[in-house]
Structure to design on (423 residues):
């Protein structure tokens, strides 16, 4: 591998001057593993272990129901306050709870109930479950559904999308800020502006973006958003998702679920339902305390590091990977599926190869050395999460060297094409 020493020196230099490199020490790091799958599940913050044990043993075990008044009843609002700081919005605009799909359903349903919108649009870059929900609600409300297609499923034809938004008056668009497959990043602010001019609105899915890129919901004039917290925010498997509604819009919509905790006075136990006028209207039932108990410590890491610092390192790391790709992987029949332009890419890089799945299995099950985890998406995509909070430049170099080794030695041939359920 020509110029490898030059890249080693560069990675060493970059790691030495990295202003947020110390944040890696706040996570549980398996010394036999290099992890590039933070876009699916983030690492475990060390303090969560002790705190979660405390919630189970002391708050649940010893204090039992007393813990609701002592701590639990305010926990969702404490979490919302931190997420609002990460997303640069008001804490009264964030609801935390349930799953991303449930939250999209409730938000989209509530908008359609206003009878103001003539169409529901999404595109082929969006996550499949978001598309499913758009299709279902279009049927239940008898509103036309439109799936926007481009030349491929990797890059948005932004001019085409802008024209559709401009010409589709009074419509709802559901878009992922960062595409799960290719990491294509949409222009948040400019699309919001175009939508407003056409009396339309956009619900943004921030799942593959929040915690990895700097997002300012206030400055970008975003009206509605949803997102998960178990990826780049590192809140744990199945941690609750969030809804964002601009404070000017909260009173205009009502949740489709008349739940206990969405009542304006839930502990009055009145037989007649009266929905709260706050963002809490989306709270269907009892908060998931065990899942939420991982979140404050996890979110505070991102808040302390600063999303602008994270974003700066992300761009630098992706640029470093792209240089390595051009030097070593392009000639070995790998294809870069993500945008090369750093202004339109999120925090994972997608590459492909005809033997992607067997290469993936070789990374996970090495003949020697450290296990490396990336993830696989059909048909031949390998997604590599660049997670600035705990990824080093040296680890990126090690990944590329390992990919070269697997190809050059034919190690991938030791594996078959059988797959487990989760890839």
């Amino acid at each position: 591998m020509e110029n490898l020493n030059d890249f080693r020196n560069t990675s060493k230099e970059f790691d030495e001057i990295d202003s947020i490199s110390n944040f890696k020490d706040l996570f549980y790091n398996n010394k036999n593993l290099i992890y590039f799958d933070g876009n699916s599940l983030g690492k475990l913050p060390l303090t969560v272990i002790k705190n979660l044990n405390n919630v189970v043993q002391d708050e649940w075990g010893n204090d039992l129901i007393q813990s609701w008044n002592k701590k639990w009843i305010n926990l969702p609002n404490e979490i919302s306050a931190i997420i609002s700081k990460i997303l640069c919005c008001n804490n009264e605009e964030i609801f935390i709870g349930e799953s991303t799909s449930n939250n999209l359903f409730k938000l989209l349903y509530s908008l359609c109930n206003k009878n103001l919108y003539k169409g529901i649009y999404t595109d082929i870059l969006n996550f499949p479950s978001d598309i499913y929900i758009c299709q279902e609600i279009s049927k239940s409300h008898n509103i036309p559904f439109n799936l926007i297609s481009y030349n491929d499923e990797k890059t948005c034809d932004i001019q085409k999308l802008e024209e559709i938004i401009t010409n589709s008056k009074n419509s709802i668009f559901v878009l992922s800020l960062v595409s799960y497959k290719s990491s294509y990043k949409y222009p948040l602010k400019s699309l919001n502006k175009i939508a407003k001019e056409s009396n339309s609105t956009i619900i943004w899915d921030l799942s593959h973006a929040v915690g990895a890129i700097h997002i300012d919901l206030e400055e970008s004039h975003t009206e509605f958003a949803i997102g998960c917290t178990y990826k780049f925010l590192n809140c744990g498997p199945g941690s609750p998702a969030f809804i964002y509604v601009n404070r000017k819009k909260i009173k205009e919509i009502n949740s489709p679920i008349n739940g206990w905790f969405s009542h304006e006075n839930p502990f009055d136990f009145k037989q007649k339902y009266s929905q709260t006028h706050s963002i809490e209207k989306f709270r269907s039932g009892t908060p998931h305390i065990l899942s939420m108990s991982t979140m404050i410590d996890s979110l505070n890491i991102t808040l302390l590091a600063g999303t602008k610092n994270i974003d700066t390192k992300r761009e630098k790391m992706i640029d470093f990977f792209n240089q390595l790709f051009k030097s070593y992987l392009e000639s070995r029949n790998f294809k870069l599926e993500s945008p090369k332009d750093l202004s339109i890419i999120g925090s994972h890089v997608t590459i492909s190869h005809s033997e992607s799945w067997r290469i993936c299995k070789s990374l996970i099950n090495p003949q020697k050395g450290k296990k490396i985890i990336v993830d696989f998406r059909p048909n031949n995509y390998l997604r590599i999460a660049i997670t600035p909070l705990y990824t080093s430049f040296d680890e990126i170099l090690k990944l590329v060297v390992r990919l070269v080794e697997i190809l050059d030695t034919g190690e991938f041939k030791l594996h078959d094409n059988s797959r487990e359920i989760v890839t």
Summary: The chain has 13 helices and 13 strands. The chain has a mean pLDDT of 96.
